[in-house]
Amino acid sequence: MQQCFVIPVYNHPHHIEALVTHLDQFQMLIILVNDGSDAACTELLHDIATKHPQVDLVEHSYNQGKGQAVMTGLRHAHKLGLSHALQLDSDGQHDWQDVAKFLQISQQNPEAMVIGQPIFDASVPKKRLYGRYATHIWVWINSLSLEIKDSMCGFRVYPLAKTIQVLDSAKFQPRMGFDSEILVRLKWANVPFINVPTKVIYPEDGISHFNVWRDNLGMSQAHVRLFGGMLLRLPKLLAQKVKG
Questions:
Q1: In the CATH scheme, what architecture does the domain 3-243 have?
Q2: Which conformational region is residue 217 in: left (phi greater than 0), alpha (psi within -120 to 50 degrees), or beta?
Q3: What superkingdom heads the lineage (predicted)?
Q4: Can you name the residues that pair with 11 across neighbouring β-strands?
Q5: Residue-level pLDDT at 209
Q6: CA–CA distance, 122 with 212 (Å, rounded to integer)
Q7: DSSP assignments along 6-56, one per residue
Q8: CB 62 within 8 A of CB 77
Q9: Which of 54, 55, 77, 224 is the most exposed, fewest CB within 10 Å of its CB?
Q10: Can you tell me the distance from the alpha carbon of 215 to that of 175, in angstroms, rounded to the nearest whole number?
Q11: Distance from C-alpha of 46 to C-alpha of 131, rounded to nearest angstrom
Q12: Residue 187, helix vs strand vs coil
């Protein structure tokens, strides 16, 4: 098994260098995907790539969305011959002390998609928390399963061979809807899931690029497409449930 890190970055300068420094201890490739950040953040990423030999900086010339940045990173890792990619967000929300646990679980279960199951503290905005539940319901309906406990957590390990097959099979929502859509489609492909409880915070200096109208519309469109896809696959999905 050959693992790496994939970190999408769009104007998140506050935590990224500390995150890379923390990940250096694992002596694994760190793929940073600069998704069209501004000049200051781009300069910081170039400086980080210069100072940290483990960093492979991949860049979009303009902002294409978090989902597209993740897809770019996953495809880049696969082309390099890596087998698994641990995705982390760059905004400081995730508990970096759990990285070793995620990697170990993936090593023990190489066929599985390992996903974070957030444990929120009081810093979580209530509107964001309630919005997650609406997405969870759609994901459970579209996957015909309760196995995906939280589809929006960006702390996860992808088995790359299967993931690339799924990415090649459909057109994906390039922004915030991607995190949920890829999990539903991996579930359709009968990939097993392992949910790992992990603390998630909303830092005081955190920067959110969630656009209420654009991203909610994009996620709604993704869920509608997935619902249609679920209906087309209904006999196969029911057969999988019976076998399971």
A1: Alpha-Beta Complex (3.90)
A2: alpha
A3: Bacteria
A4: none
A5: 55
A6: 22
A7: EEEESS-TTTHHHHHHHHGGG--EEEEEEES--HHHHHHHHHHHHH-TTEE
A8: no
A9: 224
A10: 7
A11: 35
A12: helix
Q: Name the residue ranges covered by the structural domains of the chain.
A: 3-243
**DSSP designation for 149:** S
Whether this model's pTM surpasses 0.90? no
Going 101 to 25 to 11 to 34, the CA torsion angle's sign is negative
pLDDT digits (tens, 9 = 90+) for 73-126: 999 999 999 999 999 999 888 999 999 999 999 999 999 999 999 998 777 766
Give the C-alpha separation, 33 to 87, whole Å: 11
Residue 16 · residue 44 · CB < 8 Å: yes
Q: Which residues are CB-neighbours of 78 under 8 A, at least 6 positions away?
A: 160, 161, 163, 164
CA angle 164, 139, 203 (to 5 degrees): 85
